[in-house]
Amino acid sequence: MTTGKKSPNSRQSAISRLSSLWRPKKTEAGERRVRRYQLRITPNKVLLINARKFRTQSANRSKLLRQWVVPFGWFGVKELAVVYKKSSRRVTASPHLHYGRAITAAALIIGIAGAIFFGFNIHQPRALEPVTTNTHVIKQPVKDNSKILAKSMPVKLDIPAIGVDTSIVTLGLNADGSMQTPDNIYQVGWYKYSPTPGQLGPAVIAGHVDNYKGIGVFFRLRELQPNDVVEVTLANGSIAKFRVYKVEIYQKNGFPTNEVYGNINYAGIRLITCGGVFNHQTGDYESNIVAYGSLI
């Protein structure tokens, strides 16, 4: 005889079936950098989502399962791969769960689309126009030996105009001969093969614009204006103060190495970061922003 009410066991069974619609799959050995999820759409169809902490080469994607691969930039995930396929295990679901599947699938699709859209727009600022000099820019500095400081390692950088207040690490060269970059996006690095700030020549300091964790220390570097002041605290306790006289943006394939790193007849500073258009295929910006300053 029935009473018209579901037993506690039947309710628990329904809850268990509903929770099984969306569940993370265990990561296989050798795929520690991939987190796999599955959403059951029908009793014999599932939507598989691979959240990868790396980006696959486009040439290799044809070797993978037929899937929709999109770049991603949040929570350490570099790309998502979505596959709609038959399940190896057929599940018999009661009719009242079909609405749950439809709602879950719709929410998932909207969430992925929104994350991709907003993630792209957060990570990629609007394209930067070349920064040009104008009539009130300070003239190119000339040699003045009275404005030369003794060699001393830089330990701290302050740029009040753009809210920078950070410590300085030391940078060398990578194996391919390129300059290293700081491991921490909130720190800057002084290139050890350039003069220390205040010595004769261009002291080179580099920092990140952003990454998947958020905005970096030099996110606002392009906003610097002529006459803005840059302060570098040295290990001997002195402070080297520089006045910005121009900010430029260069395509990386046309970077003016001699102008940035070459000898000059005054104590100068070069602040470098990435900028311009963000290339989602290479995972890098296409340009560099360089702010030039002279000791005051």
Characterize the structure shown:
The chain has 296 residues and is an alpha+beta fold. It is built from three helices and 15 strands. It has helices at residues 8-19, 98-123, 257-261; strands spanning 22-25, 34-42, 45-52, 68-71, 79-86, 154-159, 164-171, 188-191, 201-207, 210-211, 214-215, 229-234, 239-251, 267-279, 284-295. The strands form three sheets. It has an eight-stranded mixed β-barrel with strand order 6-7-8-9-14-15-13-12. A five-stranded antiparallel β-sheet has the order 1-2-3-5-4, with helices on one face. The longest helix is centred in the middle third of the chain and has 26 residues, at 98-123. It is elongated, with a radius of gyration of 27 Å. 23% of the residues are buried.
Shape: elongated
Sheet/helix structural class: alpha+beta
Could you describe the largest sheet, including whether it forms a barrel?
8 strands, mixed, barrel
Portion in strands: 35-45%
Q: Element order, helices and strands? A: HEEEEEHEEEEEEEEHEE
Spatial order of strands in the largest sheet:
6-7-8-9-14-15-13-12
Helix proportion range: 10-25%
Number of strands: 15
* Mean pLDDT reading: 75
Distinct helical segment count: 3
Spans of at least 5 consecutive residues whose pLDDT stays below 50 are 1-8, 10-32, 58-65, 116-139
Report Rg.
27 Å
Q: How far do the termini sit from each other?
A: 95 Å
